[in-house]
Amino acid sequence: xxxxxxxxxxxxxxxxxxxxxxxxxxxxKILMPLKLYVGKVRFxxxxxxxxxxxxxxxxxxxxxxxxxxxxxTRHAIDEHxxxxxxxxxxxxxxxxxxxxxxxxxxxxLWNKQNKEFLLLSEAIFYFLMANKDxxxxxxxxxxxxxxxxxxxxxxxxxxKEKDLQNALNSVFSGFKTISKKQSRFSKxxxxxxxxxxxxxxxxxxxxxxxxxxxxxxxxxxxxxxxQAEHLLLGSFIFPVLVKxxxxxxxxxxxxxxxEFKLFVFEHFxxxxxxxxxxxxxxxxxxxxxxxxxxxxxxxxxxxTIYKLGST
Length: 311
Known about the structure:
By secondary structure, the chain is mainly alpha-helical. The protein has helices spanning 2-13, 100-112, 115-130, 139-153, 161-171, 197-213, 227-248, 256-269, 287-309; strands at 61-68, 71-78.
């Protein structure tokens, strides 16, 4: 339901980690996953999965119903044998913290039930589907779903690359400083040297998505970013795009943290995010974390200068 999509969106766009509970009272089995640490804590859709099963004590078993193309199946499981397994791709060691400001904005928009609500809820739905991190969904599928989420957010109904670029231009106005000729891609003979990295990123991501969407899994095209980098970058920036959209329609005011994420994004684009630094100090010392720390100081200086200049 629309309400369900909106409620889920509050969770996925906040910083949340719910516990898994067995409604039958049986022992819960937890499998702790290993992860590649690439920055701020990230949660995927499956962090928010939960199961509710109505049980009559006299029954002695639980009925599990599954969806199939040809109907459904129903399985009877002894209530003392049932347990929930935390998937390998879910890190259950993080604590919950709801973004109350964002939650309020989403609920206010939900009460309107207008076109903007429809676009936003559909965009968030596709974002959720693209952020499961599950082995059951391939990176190819996630690329298609994630670009679709951004397209839906900005009502790019014609499926044109240029429409998506124009939509993001307004978001990153004032945050574009790195051109291709100033970047790590300066020697690659593709795109214009004066194009900004942010513009090239969405163009590159859209073209990759188009090949996957039309059934092509291998390509000879030159891509500036790997599939994994595109997915990481897209998953990071989409919640900020949602907040910016809510701000445009009068339901949200961007915080300094939101503005910092818009500022730092192009610096992430200019690094190979999954490469270990040669002088790596510890297991969490990756380019993403270094950029996050270094650019926060630079951002603070710029904000201070701007405030002094406007007084």
